[in-house]
Amino acid sequence: GAGVSQTPSNKVTEKGKYVELRCDPISGHTALYWYRQSLGQGPEFLIYFQGTGAADDSGLPNDRFFAVRPEGSVSTLKIQRTERGDSAVYLCASSLRGDRAHEQYFGPGTRLTVT
Amino acid sequence: QKEVEQDPGPLSVPEGAIVSLNCTYSNSAFQYFMWYRQYSRKGPELLMYTYSSGNKEDGRFTAQVDKSSKYISLFIRDSQPSDSATYLCAMSANTGFQKLVFGTGTRLLVSP
Questions:
Q1: Which residues of B touch A95 (CB under 8 A)?
Q2: Contact (CB<8Å) A45/B100
Q3: Among A7, A39, A88, A112, which has the minimal tally of Cβ within 10 Å of its Cβ?
Q4: What is the rounded distance in angstroms from the CA atom of residue A15 to the CA atom of residue A39?
């Protein structure tokens, strides 16, 4: 079946602008995660959703970052007043619940470049 | 100090070699241990996961977890050029919805 999809694949924006990154999880997966991967590093957790609610947003670096999942499926990560340090690959993952919850399946990522 | 340590490599081996990739960790609460493979400009792909200590085998891949030493390994037998990628270890503490904590990844190069 279809995997996790993310759009856009690449986004170049100017410092100070607002961006939205979209994630479409695997059908039937109730959990959705956002991670950020900087060059030469492993992914770092940002936020996860159980259904529509953010169950853990402890990884969001500051209040410029916000994410929503209004209908429990597609999610949007929103970044306000972008800074050059926000440049990274933003990865989305989804999983089933219960004892399969640790099997997280990742999308291809959105490469964000802030100039 | 990071919760999960992984040698970034690169690790270069000839085709057919046995590859050993390793991670150490400091958080004794970790119970689920995953290995992901990531090709350049792609998302991480789940290879294997192990719960608690022990071994797990899947084809040419074997995952080992030693919780007493806080040390995990991934072995690749009969390595192929197509195995050239970055290998990321990841861990989580409990069942249910849990964030993964990743190592930095080890870049593996398998030459024909």
A1: 97
A2: yes
A3: A39
A4: 19
The answer, for A32 touching chain B at a CB cutoff of 8 Å, is no
Burial of A39 (0-12, 13-18, 19+ CB in 10 A): exposed
> Model confidence at B89, in pLDDT bands (50, 70, 90)?
very high
CA distances from A49 to A18, A23, A32, A34, B14 (A): 22, 12, 5, 9, 43
**Per-residue pLDDT tens digits for B14-37:** 999 999 999 999 999 999 999 999
Q: How many CA atoms lie within 13 A of A85 on its CB side?
A: 4
Of A45, A99, A103, the CB nearest to B99: A45
Q: Is A39 on the interface with B (CB under 8 A)?
A: no
Report pLDDT for A97. Answer: 80
* Look-up of token digits 């994410």: A67
Mean pLDDT split into 10-residue runs, chain A, 115 residues: 92 98 95 95 95 91 96 96 98 87 91 98
pLDDT value, residue B96 = 61
